[in-house]
């Protein structure tokens, strides 16, 4: 029975340990898991049916020349073929459903967790780690569930074969049942060694693939400066290393491949020898001799499943551990867990560390000497880091975080653009109307972005806005942040990547768009600062002066040097070095 | 966006034939050994048949012992033969693989820039990672397995034919239904699995993006939207996986049932042959065992067919890169002059309307020219024409009287360098990252270049020039990376520099630091700066204002300000003067 995916409620995962997590994935769908075990066991035992039926056809039909008997057994072989085909596909479907149910469940709990975790996530987990968890670990965890079906089936089939052979001859049963684990012990260490060299091969292959990708992403740089031959040579050298590593893998791999076929064949030869002697002495019939041959040949299947299944389980446990590590992360409340109500209506924000006061309802420009100070200040104002910021006189840390997020928006310079149509990107919540979108696009001067994309607002925007230019991305972000309509909007360098013409337009429109609401613009562009109500000049992390752009230009030489680029450039280390070189 | 080409069947056949020709010897030995191993592998069922005949004939244990020992001996020989064959075959595959990937990278490096830019690097990146890996996997696993299985199958058929020619056809009893369903499956499988792979990587991308943009999700309160988006991707993944499962649900049962047919047919035929006294019981048993034995290689071929198909598709994409004509070698000898002149240049991107409408511009050696104008005016296009990356549709761009597109690309790059906001730190040491720009540069040259651009961070590097940089090693921040790019330019030493918004992607303060480093690079060169920051224009000797694909104003900063046109208006507002 196919599951209904995605799950309406994926449930609460058991994150106490990797094995418990795997067990949780099974427990959530235990009837299907049970069905998988039953079908897989039946199928695997059924595989022994064909050798048995062939043996009966030989004994009862061919040897005695009894046509009706022969026809009956041949019909039985065909019938068994139909049943086995049916069982086989039922096993495959049930196991696929079992794995897919688990895959969707893991994806959903991860999705739910990652979406609600917030800013703490990138700080605690490196980006590549999440990509591995989502790309590899989810599916490997699901593959471990294979053990539930064919794994159980293999154990039962193996036991059954023991009983059947025991009925033919106890000695044969002992040889077969002890022999198979012996084979596993012989091939096992070889497999271990193979895994070792293969891991190194894959690592080297990974290096080479990264190199090729590196060259591809640097192609335009190479085109500008030259030097392609050097890279072709470097790559070829590395490729030859991989070639030699490949030879090493092949040396062992070829033994594994030859022995995994050869050792069972040797084993089969021994069994044939034993049973042929018995047949020669009349202890068993010729048909039974053929059947024993068939049974032993078929036993390879459960043994293979057990080896493979054990491997998958080990890998699945490792993967489950990494999934749990993400699921165990808890949001951090930036130093406090306040629940107090936020001030109603307009209120000033004040940051004692820098001495900055954000007056309610105005457009405030902040020009910082050091960009790092600007980022730190913005983070304090938005409570992304602990601080002593007050809002309407109340400490920000004492307020309910969700409410702070709703009412104060810190719009980062490089905030993430998610994939979707341009309209999806701009509709930051369901209440956004077309008219609002139009107004925000106008303010952000992003009309040409809409026009240049085929399909306008319905055009797809790729992840991180990769199909947009730097300037287009920045304006789409600005429109998006305007559409969030927060009471306090804190913008970081919102126009650094657009040309002066466009910047002038944005500066003009931003003031009108945010009229009556509090807006803070961190920037050093005179075009933008000129259109603010008030500017705070930040030096060494402290507010050094407050006034209009015009006032500060005349009263603060440092401010003038920072924003008006025609002034004498301050001597910095780099400038001094350049000077020394001349 | 124009896609990169894909190789057709003839190209693939030619390339495969070439690989096989070069490996003629080892490949031949491998095939012969595999064939020998397969033939020896046939001994067991035949010997079992003999044993049965002897047992029925009343032979004693001694005779049975000899035959059983022979089975064991054959197995040992088979192990040795197939191990050697596998090892040799693996080496052939590894060599072919190395050659394909090295060719691929060499050809990628020879691609003309305009082709790379128009196709985007996404397609190339996929080919260099996914496709090269898929071809590699096919060569290492799929091709050998299919080849060995085919040899085994042929050997089995031959053995049955030897037992009795008519019986050979009986082994094939399962073939018609297997082939029919395989054809049905293979026609549908590639698209279905492609869709499945797409859906899976899109889900991964959505999850990863949600994690990477976690702060944005929190700031803009997008959690519900992200969940909705992710859930939609999970739905897509499930839909595509059900589609492939539906295909397998037809394919697997038919194939598995077909496995019963040869044994059944063989028993019936055996009964008939036996009744007529044409064959012994032992021979019939051997033939039946052979028909059972044929299942495994057939099974493997079928399992790998789909992967082989995927390997073929990837190979056509890998070889497709070779179909792009490489950058033309120059036809003109390098000119001594340095004057860069544009005459009546018009340009349009493939099929579109003109972006530049007749540009006339003379850049004097040693001058600094700033090009300003609104987004979309054609500034970057002009930069590309000047750098010789694109040729004008009409008109000409010449350096010292020679059209730039007729210069040898390497020669051209030595004279004119285009610097964009794209900077890239290659994987490798700092030395590698500098050396490619000027292979003959000494260590002192490199240190001087770093000092010239004010790369103060050099002092913090643990191993100096031998510090590993790039993906997976030490990461440079954007400003440092831009300085590295500038140090390369100092080493490459072109007489003309075209700066296309070289600092636009940096935050303003960093951009200013970089501009200062740039000052060192610009010394004594002709500079054409495409800029949206007007202070660049202020410092330039001349300013060109580009609007709607035409140069609307041209002159020194002071002249243009005095003229009171578009530039003057912009300058006043930017400068903070009240107009």
Automatic annotation (TrEMBL), chain B:
Pfam families: ABC_membrane, ABC_tran. SUPFAM superfamilies: ABC transporter transmembrane region, P-loop containing nucleoside triphosphate hydrolases. One of its GO terms (cellular component) is plasma membrane. CDD domains: ABC_6TM_exporters. It is a multi-pass membrane protein. Keywords: ATP-binding, Cell inner membrane, Cell membrane, Membrane, Nucleotide-binding, Transmembrane, Transmembrane helix, Transport. One of its GO terms (molecular function) is ATP binding. The chain crosses the membrane at residues 31-52, 64-81, 142-163, 169-186, 243-261. The keyword Methyltransferase does not apply. The keyword Zinc does not apply. This is Multidrug ABC transporter ATP-binding protein. Residues 29-310 form the ABC transmembrane type-1 domain. It comes from Catellatospora bangladeshensis. Gene3D superfamilies: ABC transporter type 1, transmembrane domain, P-loop containing nucleotide triphosphate hydrolases. The lineage of its organism: Bacteria, Bacillati, Actinomycetota, Actinomycetes, Micromonosporales. Residues 340-573 form the ABC transporter domain. It is found in: Cell membrane.
């Amino acid at each position: 029975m196919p599951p209904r995916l995605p799950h309406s409620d994926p449930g609460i995962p058991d994150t106490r340990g990797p094995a418990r997590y795997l067990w949780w994935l099974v427990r959530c769908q235990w009837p299907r898991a049970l069905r998988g075990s039953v079908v897989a066991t039946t199928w695997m035992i059924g595989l022994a049916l064909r050798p048995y039926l062939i043996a009966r056809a030989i004994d009862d039909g061919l040897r005695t020349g009894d046509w009706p008997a022969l026809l009956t057994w041949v019909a039985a072989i065909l019938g068994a073929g139909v049943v086995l085909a049916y069982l086989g596909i039922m096993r495959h479907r049930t196991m696929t459903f079992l794995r897919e149910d688990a895959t969707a469940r893991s994806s959903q709990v991860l999705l739910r967790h990652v979406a609600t975790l917030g800013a703490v996530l990138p700080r605690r987990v490196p980006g590549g780690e999440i990509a591995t968890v989502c790309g590899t670990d989810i599916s490997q965890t699901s593959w471990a569930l294979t053990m539930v079906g064919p794994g159980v089936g293999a154990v039962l089939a193996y036991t059954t074969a023991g009983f059947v052979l025991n009925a033919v001859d106890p000695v044969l049963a002992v040889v077969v049942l002890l022999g198979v684990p012996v084979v596993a012990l012989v091939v096992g260490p070889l497999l271990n060694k193979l895994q070792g060299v293969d891991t190194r091969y894959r690592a080297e292959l990974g290096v080479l693939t990264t190199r090729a990708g590196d060259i591809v992403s640097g192609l335009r740089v190479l085109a500008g400066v030259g030097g392609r031959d050097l890279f072709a040579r470097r790559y070829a050298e590395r490729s030859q290393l991989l070639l030699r590593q490949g030879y090493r893998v092949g040396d062992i791999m070829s033994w594994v491949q030859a022995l995994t076929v050869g050792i069972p064949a040797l084993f089969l030869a021994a069994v044939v020898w034993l049973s042929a002697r018995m047949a020669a002495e009349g202890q068993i019939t010729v048909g039974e001799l053929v059947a024993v041959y068939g049974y032993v040949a078929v036993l390879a299947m459960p043994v293979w499943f057990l080896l493979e299944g054990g491997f998958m389980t080990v890998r699945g446990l490792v993967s489950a551990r990494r999934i749990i590590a993400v699921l165990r992360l808890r949001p951090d409340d930036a130093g406090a867990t306040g629940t107090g109500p936020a001030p109603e209506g307009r209120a000033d924000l004040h940051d004692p560390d820098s001495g900055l006061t954000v007056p309610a309802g105005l457009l405030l420009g902040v020009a910082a000497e050091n960009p790092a100070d600007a980022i730190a200040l913005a983070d304090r104002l938005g409570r992304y880091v602990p601080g002593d910021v007050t809002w309407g006189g109340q400490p920000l840390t004492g307020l309910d975080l969700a409410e702070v997020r709703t009412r104060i928006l810190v719009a980062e310079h490089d905030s993430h653009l998610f994939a979707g149509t341009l309209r999806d990107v701009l509709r930051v919540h369901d209440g956004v109307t077309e008219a609002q979108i139009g107004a925000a696009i106008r303010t952000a001067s992003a009309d040409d972005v809409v026009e240049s994309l085929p399909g306008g607002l319905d055009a797809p925007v790729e992840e991180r806005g990769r199909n947009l230019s730097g300037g287009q991305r920045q304006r789409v972000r600005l429109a998006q942040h305007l559409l969030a309509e927060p009471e306090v909007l804190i913008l970081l360098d919102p126009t650094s990547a657009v040309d002066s013409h466009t910047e002038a337009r944005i500066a003009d429109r931003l003031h009108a768009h945010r009229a009556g609401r509090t807006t803070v613009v961190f920037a050093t562009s005179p075009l933008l600062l000129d259109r603010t109500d008030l500017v705070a000049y930040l030096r060494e992390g402290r507010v050094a002066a407050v006034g209009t752009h015009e006032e500060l230009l005349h009263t603060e030489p440092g401010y003038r040097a920072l924003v008006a680029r025609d002034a004498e450039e301050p001597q910095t280390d780099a400038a001094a070095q350049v000077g020394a070189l001349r | 966006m124009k896609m990169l080409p894909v190789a057709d069947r003839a190209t693939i056949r030619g390339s495969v034939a070439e690989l096989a020709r070069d490996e003629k010897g080892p490949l031949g030995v491998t095939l012969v050994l595999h064939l020998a191993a397969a033939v020896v592998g046939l001994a067991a069922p035949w010997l079992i048949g003999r044993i049965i005949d002897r047992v029925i004939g009343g032979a004693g244990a001694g005779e049975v012992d000899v035959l059983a020992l022979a089975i064991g001996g054959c197995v040992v020989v088979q192990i040795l033969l197939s191990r050697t064959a596998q090892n040799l075959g693996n080496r052939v595959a590894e060599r072919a693989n190395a050659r394909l990937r090295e060719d691929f990278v060499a050809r990628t490096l020879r691609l003309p820039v305009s082709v790379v830019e128009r196709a985007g690097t996404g397609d190339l990146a996929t080919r260099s990672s996914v496709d090269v890996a898929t071809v590699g996997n096919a060569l290492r696993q799929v091709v050998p397995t299919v080849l060995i299985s085919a040899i085994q199958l042929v050997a089995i058929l031959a053995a049955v034919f030897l037992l009795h020619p008519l019986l050979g056809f009986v082994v094939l009893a399962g073939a018609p239904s297997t082939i029919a369903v395989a054809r049905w499956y293979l026609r549908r499988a590639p698209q279905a699995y492609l869709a499945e792979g797409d859906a899976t990587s899109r889900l991964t991308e959505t999850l990863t993006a949600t994690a990477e943009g976690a702060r944005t999700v929190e700031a803009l309160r997008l959690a519900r939207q992200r969940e909705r988006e992710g859930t939609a991707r999970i739905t897509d993944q499930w839909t595509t996986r059900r589609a492939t499962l539906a295909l397998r649900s037809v394919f697997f049962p038919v194939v598995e049932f077909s496995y019963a047919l040869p044994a059944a047919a063989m028993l019936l035929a055996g009964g008939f042959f036996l009744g007529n006294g044409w064959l012994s019981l032992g021979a019939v048993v051997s033939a039946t065992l052979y028909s059972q034995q044929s299942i495994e290689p057939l099974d493997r071929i079928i399992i790998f067919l789909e992967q082989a198909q995927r390997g073929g598709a990837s190979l056509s994409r890998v070889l497709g890169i070779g179909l792009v004509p490489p950058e033309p070698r120059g036809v003109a000898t390098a000119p001594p002059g340095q004057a860069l002149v544009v005459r009546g240049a018009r340009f349009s991107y493939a099929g579109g309307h003109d972006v530049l409408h007749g540009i006339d511009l003379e850049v004097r050696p040693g001058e600094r020219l700033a090009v300003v104008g609104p987004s979309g005016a054609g500034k970057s296009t002009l930069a590309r024409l000047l750098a010789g990356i694109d040729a004008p549709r009409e008109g000409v761009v010449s350096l010292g009287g020679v059209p730039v597109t007729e210069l040898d690309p390497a020669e051209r790059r030595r004279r004119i360098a285009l610097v964009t906001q794209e900077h890239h730190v290659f994987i490798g040491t700092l030395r590698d990252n500098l050396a490619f720009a000027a292979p003959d540069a000494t260590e002192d040259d490199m240190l001087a270049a770093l000092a010239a651009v004010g790369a103060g961070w050099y002092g913090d590097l643990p191993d100096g020039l031998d510090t590993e940089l790039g993906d997976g090693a030490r990461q440079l921040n954007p400003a440092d990376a831009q300085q590295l790019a500038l140090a390369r330019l100092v080493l490459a030493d072109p007489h003309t520099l075209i700066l296309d918004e070289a600092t636009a992607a940096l935050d303003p303060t960093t951009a200013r630091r970089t501009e200062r480093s740039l000052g060192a690079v610009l010394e004594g060169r002709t500079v054409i700066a495409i800029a949206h920051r007007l202070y660049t224009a202020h410092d330039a000797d001349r300013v060109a204002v580009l609007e709607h694909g035409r140069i609307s104003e041209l002159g020194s900063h002071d002249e243009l300000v005095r003229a009171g046109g578009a530039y003057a208006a912009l300058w006043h507002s930017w400068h903070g003067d009240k107009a």
